[in-house]
């Protein structure tokens, strides 16, 4: 079986605009704003002060807890202030402002493109370096990677699954990264296998990237235990639970983490970051993002230092197209629509998608015709029509009984609904509310 | 004839049997209940709004009967009069609270607060709030989808299409608190209704610093603290760049209203101020100065 | 550039619509309709025209003047209801009876519940059963297929194969001779409600719907399998089991019902297992009516009875991700 077993949809992949476009480095900005919340978990705590001189790669804010991540300076320059900035959704977040002076890195960081092969490193050492480098999952959830590498006592990882699926339409950054940095990714996989003390790794890649499959297969052939699994196209294959099901045929039980079935999933971009952090001592200060859209002048894949205003990247790609109606941070299925592009690049944004005006508006919803297409497309086996209705009527207990917390917010239900009903709007709202109720109940105990 | 007779007999017998069964079962499974619960429930409005904090009117009635004193038990809909009735039924002393009313603390009208984007999702404040800042640049202000209107069971809150803000009908509002819970931005507050419905409050909940708050909305409280200095009763506190008037301490002197440079403090249902007319003009011109500073 | 539009994800849509689904169902009915026109001539055309027009008009009037909501005739569901109702009528039915059926179908069967998506019972079948009970004589006089040669008003009539089957079941083995050739039932040279006569076209249309993912296989397959199994067990004396099964499957409204009526979105269950049980229920009730009931055909009743069970069947959950078998 080459895909996950329950539900799924087939959106048009639209990757042609930016596919196979070589990664371009985005120039350094004059002023950079580094948000302190670039991950799931507690905000990072600044360790520099106004007026401090920093070098690229230097720690400027340290993790505010176990589930949190360090933040490093991507540039050399002077801290101009520690304040707050408005993110792409208009919400104020704490941030460090840096007047950029240049690109002077810390001495121990190796910024040459030379490939470094793994030395003999202890698992602890690898995990420590990953943690110090502030690496988070770059597939979208931004969950701190070191947490995944330290399974809770009694749980043992058996297999590393590397996510090269990129099931979101339009996005091509992971694809291009595999083509350009396949060797590094392979070394990164070996590092992670060593950190987790496992012998097996599977790289899952969808079949719309035959060049990446062929290239990774060629490279994986040289490494014991690593294999490539070509997967049939189906969204949301890049979802952690769906990918595990597709690759090893095990389904993570409701409410459990992947480690329950012995799997650890990491995105290819994360694996690349692990390689750079462990063997080149380079913390996570940049990522590749896809700038794309039907009317974008120069769609492509751009390597951006965090803190660079997104508008700089957009300018590089030919500016905002004339008839843009909606700008999406990420892909069209799970990305969030933004209300400005002044926000700095950060660990969270994997792409910028410009939707033309005529595709931006939703179609007016009609009555539910109970066609059950949402039920059959739900990859978690839920009943979105029912959950949406319950959320509208504020029937929170009923939603909990119908496994609302399993929802991965992939959007298949809204995507597939012939009546154009905004099912996920309500399901997501219900999930947030029920989540709050469950947390307060646990806190009361 | 025979057939009619048989039919009558059969139907009659069935009916009789059912009646007997019903009677027996009703006797057998009767739940003994304090008869006063029924009486109290009768006295309550019966809207089952939940404003008292109980599941419905009957639940409140049960609580009233069981409780030692009526302290803390209040039907916000019926108010003092209803609780008086309940007290007489139960022979307990009524504890009368202040009559309250829901107050919308946002004055971000379409004019004062420019809309910066178009929201195209489901028209629900909760959904919009989870999605982003909203159609204006103010992350604290009213989202304008009317979750509060939908929550109100007494038809007491309505959207004003001109301002894009909800307005409370003092007469109809029962201060049940449904709208307070429905608002994801906690804009609506229950405040003392005040003598002749006169009350003074800060019509803003923006906690941003002065400059960004003002940029997002001309009517925003900028946390300048002028009102705090003006107040003789220590009723005003300024925290996180936001002034708050404690309605338990406020004596309705209206000094703060005149002092506010942005007009964020509202005094309503007062007679027009004749002698204060000259004061009002400088109050109006002051925002401009404020802008220059910002 | 205007103000940016912001909405929650997802920002893409499959492009599917209610209209598209209805259009596909109508398209899938067309082969059967073509055969019916060839077989029954003007009768088929006139009945359909009246039924469809009355359904659409009725929906428009009720939506506009009674419910005061936006008209929904654009989604073509009323057209489909009209078409399905017509398919279930004898082709020589007087025009005013067709009209009554259409008004009942839309007015009572659909709009009284609040319009599309709210109704409990399949509107076309509500209309048909209403007519069947109100005008039993007219509704069970089946014209023989004569093409355009026959007269619309008083066509030569004859018994349907199902009536003959009933006799066989009742013990009259010689009634077997009254049955048409199996091949004729397959291509549509038999009497009956004009849309249900051509098994081949109906199967083709049904497969088309399954292939275009308008419907899933669960309901039709479970109905047909149940009917086949039941008739195999209950094969009467004087008939080979395979012949009996074939006649039960190919005649009457079974195929039309299984592919086009029972699978109606609004009135069928939401989950795979719910659909299968729904189908089994229909199959059982049909066979019970066909063998022991007083009507020769029970498809309409079977579907309507199971429609009533749908809210209950919707309590059956789909298989959740990661759920362990108990």
Q: What is the topology?
A:
The complex is a heterotrimer of chains A (445), B (294) and C (326).
Chain A: E1 24-25, E2 31-35, E3 45-46, E4 53-54, E5 59-62, E6 71-72, E7 76-86, E8 92-102, H1 123-132, H2 145-149, E9 159-163, H3 173-196, E10 200-206, H4 210-220, E11 226-231, H5 240-248, E12 263-267, H6 268-279, E13 286-293, E14 300-305, H7 310-316, E15 324-329, E16 336-338, E17 351-356, H8 357-360, H9 373-377, H10 384-392, H11 396-401, H12 412-416, H13 423-444
Parallel strand pairs in A: 1-14, 9-10, 9-12, 10-11, 13-17
Antiparallel strand pairs in A: 2-8, 3-5, 4-7, 5-6, 7-8, 13-14, 15-16, 15-17
Chain B: H1 2-28, H2 35-43, H3 57-66, H4 79-90, E1 100-104, E2 117-119, H5 125-131, H6 147-151, E3 157-160, E4 165-168, H7 178-182, E5 188-192, E6 199-202, H8 210-216, H9 226-230, E7 236-239, E8 242-245, H10 255-259, E9 265-268, H11 277-293
Antiparallel strand pairs in B: 1-5, 3-4, 6-9, 7-8
Helix pairs in contact in B: 2-3, 2-4
Chain C: E1 4-6, H1 18-40, H2 42-66, H3 77-87, H4 95-108, H5 123-134, H6 136-139, E2 142-143, E3 157-158, H7 161-169, H8 182-187, H9 199-211, H10 218-233, H11 241-250, H12 254-261, H13 272-292, H14 299-313
Helix pairs in contact in C: 1-2, 1-3, 1-9, 2-3, 2-4, 3-4, 3-5, 4-5, 5-14, 9-12, 10-11, 10-12, 10-13, 13-14
List keywords for this structure.
heterotrimer; A: 445 residues; alpha/beta; Rossmann fold; OB fold (Dihydrolipoamide Acetyltransferase, E2P); Ubiquitin-like (UB roll); 4 domains; six-stranded mixed beta sheet; four-stranded antiparallel beta sheet; 13 helices; 20% strand; B: 294 residues; alpha+beta; Alpha-Beta Plaits; 3 domains; two-stranded antiparallel sheet; 11 helices; 9 strands; disordered C terminus
Structure description:
The complex is a heterotrimer of chains A (445), B (294) and C (326). Chain A has 4 domains: 15-21 and 114-279, Rossmann fold; 25-102, OB fold (Dihydrolipoamide Acetyltransferase, E2P), CATH 2.40.50; 286-360, Ubiquitin-like (UB roll) (Roll), CATH 3.10.20; 373-444, no CATH class. Chain A has 13 helices and 17 strands. Chain A has helices at residues 123-132, 145-149, 173-196, 210-220, 240-248, 268-279, 310-316, 357-360, 373-377, 384-392, 396-401, 412-416, 423-444, and strands spanning 24-25, 31-35, 45-46, 53-54, 59-62, 71-72, 76-86, 92-102, 159-163, 200-206, 226-231, 263-267, 286-293, 300-305, 324-329, 336-338, 351-356. In chain A, the strands form 4 sheets. In chain A, strands 1-14-13-17-15-16 form a 6-stranded mixed sheet. A 4-stranded antiparallel sheet of chain A has the order 2-8-7-4, with no helix packed on it. The mean pLDDT of chain A is 92. The termini of chain B are far apart. The model of chain B is unreliable at 276-294 (pLDDT under 50). Chain B has 3 domains: 37-90, no CATH class; 101-191, Alpha-Beta Plaits (2-Layer Sandwich); 194-294, Alpha-Beta Plaits, CATH 3.30.70.20. In chain B, the strands form 4 sheets. Chain B has a two-stranded antiparallel ribbon with strand order 1-5. Chain B has a two-stranded antiparallel ribbon with strand order 3-4. In chain B, α2 (35-43) crosses α3 (57-66) and α2 (35-43) runs antiparallel to α4. With 294 residues, chain B is of the alpha+beta class. Chain B is elongated and about 95 Å long. Chain C has 2 domains: 18-139, no CATH class; 161-313, no CATH class. Chain C has 326 residues and is mainly α. In chain C, strands 2-3 form a two-stranded antiparallel sheet. The chains are: A alpha/beta (445), B alpha+beta (294), C mainly alpha (326). Chains A and C meet through β15, β16, α9, α12 and α13 of A and β1 and α1 of C. β2 of chain B pairs parallel with β1 of chain C, so a sheet runs across the interface.
């Amino acid at each position: 079986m080459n895909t996950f077993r329950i539900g799924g949809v087939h959106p048009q992949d639209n990757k042609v605009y930016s596919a196979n476009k070589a990664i371009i480095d985005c120039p350094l900005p004059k002023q950079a704003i580094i948000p302190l919340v670039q991950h799931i978990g507690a905000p990072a705590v600044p360790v520099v002060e106004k007026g401090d001189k920093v070098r690229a790669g230097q720690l400027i804010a340290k993790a505010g807890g176990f589930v949190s991540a360090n933040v490093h300076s991507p540039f050399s320059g002077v801290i101009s202030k520690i304040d707050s900035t408005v993110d792409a959704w208009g919400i104020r977040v704490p941030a460090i402002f840096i007047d950029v002076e240049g690109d002077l890195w810390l001495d121990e960081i190796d910024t040459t493109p030379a490939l470094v092969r793994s030395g003999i490193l202890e698992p602890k050492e690898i995990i420590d370096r990953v943690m110090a480098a502030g690496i988070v999952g770059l597939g979208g959830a931004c969950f701190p990677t070191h947490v995944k590498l330290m399974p809770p006592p009694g749980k043992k990882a058996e297999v590393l699954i590397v996510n090269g699926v990129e099931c979101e339409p339009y996005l091509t950054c992971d694809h291009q990264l595999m083509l350009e940095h396949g060797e590094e990714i392979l070394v990164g996989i070996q590092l992670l296998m060593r950190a987790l003390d496992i012998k097996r790794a599977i790289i899952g890649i969808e079949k719309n990237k035959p060049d990446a499959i062929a290239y990774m297969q060629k490279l994986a052939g040289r490494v014991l235990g690593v294999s490539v699994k070509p997967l049939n196209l189906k969204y949301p294959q890049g979802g952690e639970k769906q990918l595990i099901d597709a690759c090893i045929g095990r389904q993570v039980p409701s409410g459990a983490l992947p480690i329950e079935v012995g799997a650890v999933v990491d995105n290819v971009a994360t694996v690349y970051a692990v390689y750079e952090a462990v063997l080149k001592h380079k913390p996570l200060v940049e990522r590749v993002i896809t700038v794309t859209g039907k009317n974008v002048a120069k769609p492509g894949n751009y390597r951006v230092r965090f803190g660079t205003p997104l508008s700089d990247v957009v300018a590089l790609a030919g500016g905002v197209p004339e008839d843009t109606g909606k700008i999406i941070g990420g892909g069209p299925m799970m990305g969030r629509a933004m209300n400005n592009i002044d926000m700095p690049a950060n660990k969270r944004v994997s792409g910028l998608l410009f939707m033309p005006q005529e595709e931006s508006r939703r179609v007016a919803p009609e009555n539910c015709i109970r066609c059950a297409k949402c039920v059959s497309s739900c990859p978690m086996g839920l009943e979105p029509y029912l959950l949406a209705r319950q959320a509208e009527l504020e029937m929170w207990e009923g939603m909990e009984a119908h496994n609302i917390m399993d929802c991965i917010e992939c959007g298949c239900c809204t995507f597939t609904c012939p009546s154009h009903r905004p099912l996920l709007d309500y399901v997501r709202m219900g999930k947030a509310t029920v989540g709050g109720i469950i947390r307060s109940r646990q806190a009361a105990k | 004839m025979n057939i009619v007779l048989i039919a009558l007999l059969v139907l009659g017998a069935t009916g009789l049997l059912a009646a007997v069964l019903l009677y027996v079962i009703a006797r057998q499974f009767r739940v003994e209940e304090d008869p006063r619960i029924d009486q109290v429930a009768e006295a309550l409005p019966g809207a089952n709004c939940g404003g008292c904090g109980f599941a419905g009117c009957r639940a409140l009635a049960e609580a009233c009967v069981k409780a030692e004193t009526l302290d803390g038990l209040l039907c916000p809909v019926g108010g003092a009069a209803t609780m008086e009735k309940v007290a007489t039924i139960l022979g307990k002393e009524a504890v009368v609270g202040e009559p309250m009313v829901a107050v919308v603390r946002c004055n971000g009208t379409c004019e004062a607060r420019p809309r910066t984007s178009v929201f195209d999702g489901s028209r629900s404040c909760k959904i919009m709030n989870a999605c982003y800042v909203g159609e204006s640049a103010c992350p604290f202000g009213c989202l304008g989808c009317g979750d509060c209107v939908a929550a109100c069971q007494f038809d007491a809150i309505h959207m004003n299409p001109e301002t894009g803000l909800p307005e409370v009908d003092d007469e109809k509002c029962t201060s049940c608190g449904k709208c307070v819970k429905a608002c994801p931005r906690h804009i609506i507050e229950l405040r003392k209704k005040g003598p002749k419905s006169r009350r003074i409050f800060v019509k803003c909940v923006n906690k941003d610093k002065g400059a960004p708050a003002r940029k997002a909305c001309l009517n925003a409280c900028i946390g300048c603290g002028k009102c705090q200095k003006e107040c003789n009763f220590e009723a005003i506190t300024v925290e996180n760049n936001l002034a708050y008037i404690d309605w338990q301490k406020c004596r309705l002197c209206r000094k703060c209203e005149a002092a506010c440079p942005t007009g964020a403090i509202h005094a309503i249902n007062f007679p027009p101020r004749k002698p204060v007319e000259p004061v009002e003009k400088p109050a109006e011109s002051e925002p401009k100065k404020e802008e220059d500073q910002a | 550039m205007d103000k940016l539009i912001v909405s929650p994800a997802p920002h893409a849509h499959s492009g599917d619509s209610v209209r598209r689904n209805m259009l596909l169902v109508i398209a899938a009915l067309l082969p059967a309709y073509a055969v019916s026109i060839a077989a029954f001539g003007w009768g088929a055309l006139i009945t359909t025209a009246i039924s469809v027009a009355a359904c659409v008009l009725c929906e428009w009037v009720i939506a506009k003047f009674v419910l005061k909501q936006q008209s929904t005739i654009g989604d073509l569901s009323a057209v489909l209801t009209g078409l399905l109702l017509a398919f279930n009528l004898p082709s020589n039915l007087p025009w005013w009876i067709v009209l009554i059926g259409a008004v009942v179908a839309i007015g009572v069967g659909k709009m009284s519940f609040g319009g599309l998506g709210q109704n409990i019972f399949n509107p076309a079948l509500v209309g048909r059963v209403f007519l069947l009970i109100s005008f039993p004589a007219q509704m069970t006089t089946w014209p023989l297929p004569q093409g355009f040669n026959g007269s619309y008003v008083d066509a030569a009539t004859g018994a349907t194969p199902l009536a003959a089957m009933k006799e066989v079941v009742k013990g009259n083995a010689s009634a077997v001779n009254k049955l048409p050739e199996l091949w004729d039932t397959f291509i549509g040279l038999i009497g009956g409600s004009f849309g249900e006569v051509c098994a081949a076209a109906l199967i083709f249309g049904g497969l088309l719907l399954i292939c275009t993912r308008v419907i899933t296989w669960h309901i039709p397959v479970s109905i047909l399998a149940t009917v086949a199994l039941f008739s195999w067990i209950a094969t009467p004396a004087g008939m080979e089991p395979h012949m009996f099964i074939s006649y039960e499957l190919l005649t009457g409204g079974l195929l039309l019902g299984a592919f086009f009526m029972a699978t109606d979105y609004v009135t069928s269950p939401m989950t795979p297992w719910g659909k299968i049980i729904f189908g089994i229920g229909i199959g059982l009730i049909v066979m019970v009516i066909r063998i022991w009931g007083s009507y020769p055909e029970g498809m309409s009743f079977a579907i309507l009875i199971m429609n009533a069970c749908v809210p209950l069947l919707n309590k059956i959950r789909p298989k959740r991700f990661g759920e362990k078998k108990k």
